[in-house]
Amino acid sequence: MNIDELKKKYNDIKIDDLTGFKRIQVKENKDEEFYQDLIETVKQYDGKISIANGIVGNASKEGFLQAEEIIKKVIDGINPEWTKKQKAAYIHYQMGKLVSYSPDFNFRGRYVNSPMANDTRNIWKSVVSGESVCNGIAALMRNLLSRVGVTTSELSSGTHNFVLAEVEEGNIIIDPTWDLKSTLYGARPMYFGKTYEQLRQEEEHISDAHKLENPPENVVEITDSELREIYHSIGYAKENGKFIFPLLDEVNAIKSKEYNNMEEKLNDFFTMFTQKFPKEAVHLSETRTILETCIYELGIEPENLITKFVYDKDDKYCQNPHLSLFIDDEEINKQMMVLDTDLMQIKGIDISEFDKNFKLHDLNNVQPFWKKYLSIDEKTNEELEK
Questions:
Q1: Domain check: are 227 and 251 in the same one?
Q2: Residues of the chain by 3-state class (helix, strand, coil), percent to 5
Q3: Do 250 and 228 share a structural domain?
Q4: Which of these, 29, 71, 241, 322, is most buried using a 10 Å CB contact count?
């Protein structure tokens, strides 16, 4: 199929003739037949071509086809006989494996890097890079669901985007971004099938992420027991409804052991984590949250743990974040650690050395939390004045 034939068959797509290449603008709600035709068209086209969802981003021919191979593996895992709820649950559970929330895209509501903004929102670029943001993640989920016959629409509060999916009994609300940590690490999804009222009650006085001017109608709740039944039917929960959550089993095993002190226990946990969960650990945003949960579970109080994204001082545009952990517990005196995703280690580092090598995001106007732990002779005059 050539481009003219594609345009004739699908007259709602837009094809731009730009300088030196063609750009195909695609809506998120196209079906599987359309994508098979699009793949054939892109493969046959000899010139330079790019694919955008809406007007977002320009995925190259190579990037588009690479992403489609990844997407095909997800679609192939779906049983055509499943209900729409089962299909939606399955797609939701794949999102954590497909993408990670990109922590350096947006800082306190300000765009850091406009080219990156397009990349993280373009469906195919985000699949290849493994990084996206909430509206890109919502667009990707809608794209996948549309291919398996589930109609969706986008919900947006202005600061956050999530998904409304039509199932047999009505509409269900799904937030794939807020559930990335659960779907990456095999835990129970917390934002699949909650009602609008439940979402708003949970975030009352904390956030307006899900606050909508026009809340959706005919929304049905998926209760805890139904959710567990759905996920058992597609292979992600056991017969008793418990989710196959390997990291929790490891944490419970560590909790059952005897250690001389907290430092020894945490070191055992960090060694286990980096050895058994290396693929998951590179998803920094989700790993940050899951590590906080595990460390609390092992006995560190929340007020004694600080996790932050930091950047090498020579990272001019703050595009490559590192995850730092700082523990100030009675048994662990001011221990600084950094997750090294290249060596796959959580390494201890002296605070002075940490200060020499890392910075907070350049748009952050607060003093780095670790500065107060430096000795006086290590602080600059400017820092002392602050």
A1: no
A2: 45, 20, 35
A3: no
A4: 71
Q: What's the burial of 57, exposed, middle or buried (CB within 10 Å: 0-12/13-18/19+)?
A: buried
**Domain, as residue range, for 133:** 3-233
Q: Is residue 251 located within the same domain as residue 229? A: no
User: Within a domain: residue 240?
Assistant: no
Rounded alpha-carbon distances, angstroms, from residue 350 to 80, 300, 313, 336: 55, 20, 16, 7
For the chain (386 residues), the mean pLDDT of every run of 10, in chain order, is: 92 87 90 95 94 84 97 96 98 96 56 54 92 92 96 95 97 98 97 97 92 96 98 97 96 97 95 97 95 96 95 88 92 90 94 95 86 73 51
Q: In 3D, which of 57, 54, 50, 44 has the Cα closest to residue 22?
A: 50
Domain count along the chain:
2
* Same domain assignment for residues 215 and 258: no
Handedness of CA 93, 210, 200, 290 (dihedral sign): positive
